[in-house]
Amino acid sequence: MNSTPRKRVRKAVFPVAGLGTRFLPATKAVPKEMLTVVDKPVIQYVVDEARAAGIEHLVFVTGRNKGVIEDHFDIPYELQSMLEERNKTEALAILNAALPTAGQTSFTRQQAPLGLGHAVWCARDIVGNEPFALLLPDMLMQDEPGCLARMMEIYNQTGGNIISTEEVAWEETHKYGVVEKGEEVAGGFRIHGMVEKPPKGTAPSNLFINGRYILQPEIFEILETQTTGAGGEIQLTDAMLTLAKKQDFYGFTFTGRTFDCGSKTGFIKANVAFAMWNSEMADEVREDILELIETVKPV
Ligand code: G1P
User: Fold this and answer.
1) 100: containing domain
2) CB-based burial label for 7 (10 Å; 0-12, 13-18, 19+)
3) What is the pTM of this model?
4) How many CA atoms lie within 13 Å of 118's alpha carbon, on the beta-carbon side?
5) Which pLDDT tens digit goes with each residue over 108-123?
6) Any residues with Cβ below 6 Å from ligand 1, and which?
7) What is the CATH number of the domain that holds 51?
8) Which residues contact 265 (CB under 8 A, 6 or more apart)?
9) How many domains does the chain have?
């Protein structure tokens, strides 16, 4: 096993090329990452989580019809000056909150939907020879501090590679990447194995990979030659398994809430959970939602 690399994690990769077909027609002209949870697009939550964990540079792996994501993280001059003229200080503050500054964003395109492993590989030149965080925007997490910040705490002690996991019902394991847990270390555990979308009844555990990673740059060399795996796609999990044979690889068990915003039900639950997290609307929302649950029946 090589010595454990522990350079600072400055960059985060966001794979945002997915088509969002499960949300049609909503995603016909709007990328699924721009759908709104309470008052922010999904991607903004994930970017905020990364920045709160100390990330300085945001790398988006985009695809066709995703240009609005680039606009979202830019300065909207016309709107800004109009709000200034009208003295709308509150709206201005919201607009400027956590905007990346010049040079802190990069965009590259995944030209064909060949899988998550391929999407990550598309970021290789922008990330370069340093460790990076990877956040899957479909997975919206609710915790304070955030999931990536908690992983950084472990990384600062262990270095190497760390992926976040959490428990899922055994019947659901075939939908995800699943890890095999080893000994406990520094608030996490060693990973002895992992498998992408294990056929029903074969998962090594019910701990699934929930979309937050800290990876060393050697993953790119492996992805370069990675053949297709589950679902005929180039799978990141397969490349991570190869890397785990050469470098330290840890798991972290996330205990906050995770919402799979790639599914309609996950997206609706995220809206309820983030509304309840908002002290200004929690009481009203609670009352109305309880009433709706009691009275509205399926048509
Ligand atoms: C991807 C990963 C998988 C992970 C999942 C989390 O799968 O390949 O390991 O568990 O994200 O959402 P996908 O959802 O792209 O099929």
Assistant:
1) 11-295
2) exposed
3) 0.94
4) 17
5) 999 999 999 999 999 9
6) 116, 136, 138-139, 176-177, 196, 208-211, 235-237
7) 3.90.550.10
8) none
9) 1
